[in-house]
Write a structure and sequence with these properties.
The chain folds into 2 domains: 66 residues; 179 residues, Trna Endonuclease, Chain: A, domain 1 (3-Layer(aba) Sandwich), CATH 3.40.1350. 50% of the residues lie in helices and 20% in strands. It has 7 helices and 8 strands. The protein has a 6-stranded mixed β-sheet with strand order 1-2-3-5-8-7, sandwiched between helices. The longest helix has 27 residues.
Length: 256
Amino acid sequence: MRGVLFAPRIILMVVVIVLAYVLIFVGELAALKALGIRTNGSTLAFLLGFIIATFLCAVLSIAIVSTGATSYLTGGLAERWTRQEFAALGPAWHIFSNVPFSVGFGEEAYTIDVDHIVVGPYGVLVLETKFSSSPLDLGAVQLEKRVSEAMVQVEDNAGRARALLRQVVPDVPIRPVIIFWGRLVKSPPSSIRRVEGRAEDVRIVHGGKAREWRPKLTERTVLPPETVERVSARIENYMADMKRKSRTDHSPESDK
């Protein structure tokens, strides 16, 4: 990120903005003088404060766009919206956010986070949340590349969840779900689109249409309350173990 912020084109843009604001400030003073308007300390302070505020906003906008932080911000908002929609299902459902999984071995190992794993009477849902600022038809006959890529991602994550829960409840149904958010996203005709996956159909829904597809999660009960609690306890303990491991790996003693 530091390399992006200090790239020559970014520095040039900031310099141009600074020069533009200096010219604007000088031009405003000249215009006020030409109109015969006297400028006192309060007027100058107001003009200078306004220019500094707008300058900081401009620089902040450049930093956000240039570093790609926009996608992280919108993605974070979409994940929060997803959590809120599932929280509306009530206390019988347990929501786990940003569930970490280690991928690979040795020095090449890295950690990925599953957006949400939701456990309830309907089963275990592995959720992948996406935000689209461009038109996207979730009911199109031919899936767009970004939808296909999301399917691969959520199926991989469902496999990780399946491996995690295999020893506790080997036959628990694990359903991969992709939730797209965005004003230009078009919902599938039946509110839920099912696409055949490697181990289980992938459900694709529009987050903004949760009132249409959310009730379908309560139509039938697959897991009894005690199984829901067992599965939830397994995920909760796993996340606590991963958190402890992360603290240990980053402690000063581990670097010796």
